[in-house]
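for the recovery benchmark. tokens below, seq after
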């Protein structure tokens, strides 16, 4: 009887935790998804209607390209990780998969650069200055890395 009570208690706890996670990740009304980053730039730079339309076209093209590259990376990584459990490994096959993955990652970086450059080209002179400041601030955040506590000397 006591064993069943423990199982029921654990089941209730798991149901409550699942409910919390579902609400927290799916049901938040003010949750900012991936599109929010693009809209942040639009708000900060104050794009006019023409710029906004061009920006939306750029974002659609960028999203489609990144999805394709991401899918390619996933397929290559899946093929690579299948080699982990094989009894014998063909090292040249593993190396070629790693090269494919690194080339696709390089493609992602080029696409990101192209996207940012295209947004910059949409801007007028004042917006270009603002955009440069936003990029500079983002790069400073990127370079900071995780804060590590200092060891006592």
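predicted aa per position
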């Amino acid at each position: 009887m006591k064993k069943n009570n423990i199982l029921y208690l654990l089941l209730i706890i798991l149901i409550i935790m699942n409910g919390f996670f579902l609400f927290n990740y799916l049901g938040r009304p003010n949750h900012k998804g991936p599109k929010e980053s693009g809209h942040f730039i639009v708000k900060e730079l104050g794009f006019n209607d023409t710029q906004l339309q061009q920006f939306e076209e750029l974002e659609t093209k960028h999203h489609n390209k990144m999805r394709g590259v991401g899918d390619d990376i996933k397929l290559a990584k899946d093929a690579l990780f299948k080699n982990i459990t094989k009894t014998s490994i063909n090292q040249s096959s593993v190396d070629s998969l790693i090269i494919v993955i690194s080339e696709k990652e390089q493609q992602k970086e080029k696409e990101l650069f192209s996207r940012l450059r295209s947004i910059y080209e949409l801007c007028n002179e004042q917006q270009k200055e603002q955009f440069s400041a936003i990029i500079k601030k983002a790069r400073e955040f990127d370079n900071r890395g995780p804060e590590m506590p200092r060891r006592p000397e």
